[in-house]
Inverse folding.
């Protein structure tokens, strides 16, 4: 981990060349201002996903929210939540202008919307897969609400990714906040209900 951090901040002109991961092509969709890249480990070639978010001001609201997301993803562990590997923040020069960029390295995943198109499921097979996936996301939200006392208030198509074994996982914790038991609209069933609307639109 120390080697990873040193490689990123070794010099502004170094960019990410010393990071032990290769950043590949980006996916066509991601959550919010994040960019989701295909990646591999330089050590053994194993696949990873790399997420990045940039801003010109280190106190930019998007960057502040992203730091919250990194902290939450690093500390929250559950089978239906995206598995965190590494993260770092670097100052990278784009021409003559510095950009503050946050990077997250995770297990290899694909945006749900793109995986659904790739699978091309129909009929009962499609319905069964959607039901199975929604159940996995419901478990993740229930864990956040009931065990961690946190609330994920923006569960949508873009916050779900799919693993190589076709499991659905929740991520995008930038807006994850402390659970307020006094607010009736902070309950897990309402989150899952709102999440369910968009699944009809992709079927």
């Amino acid at each position: 981990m120390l080697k990873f951090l040193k490689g990123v901040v070794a010099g502004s002109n170094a960019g990410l060349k010393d990071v032990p991961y290769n950043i590949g092509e980006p996916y066509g969709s991601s959550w919010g201002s994040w960019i989701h890249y295909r990646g591999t480990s330089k050590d053994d070639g194993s696949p990873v996903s790399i997420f990045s978010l940039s801003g010109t001001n280190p106190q930019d609201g998007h960057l502040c929210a992203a730091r919250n997301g990194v902290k939450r993803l690093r500390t929250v562990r559950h089978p239906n939540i995206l598995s965190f590997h590494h993260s770092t923040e670097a100052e990278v020069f784009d021409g003559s202008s510095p950009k503050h960029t946050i990077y997250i390295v995770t297990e290899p995943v694909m945006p749900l919307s793109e995986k659904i198109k790739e699978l091309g499921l129909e009929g009962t097979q499609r319905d069964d897969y959607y039901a199975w996936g929604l159940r996995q996301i419901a478990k993740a939200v229930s864990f956040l609400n009931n065990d961690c006392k946190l609330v994920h208030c923006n569960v949508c198509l873009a916050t779900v990714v799919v693993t190589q074994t076709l499991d659905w996982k929740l991520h995008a914790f930038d807006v994850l906040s402390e659970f307020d038991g006094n607010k009736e609209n902070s309950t897990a069933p309402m989150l899952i209900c709102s999440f369910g609307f968009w699944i009809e639109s992709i079927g």
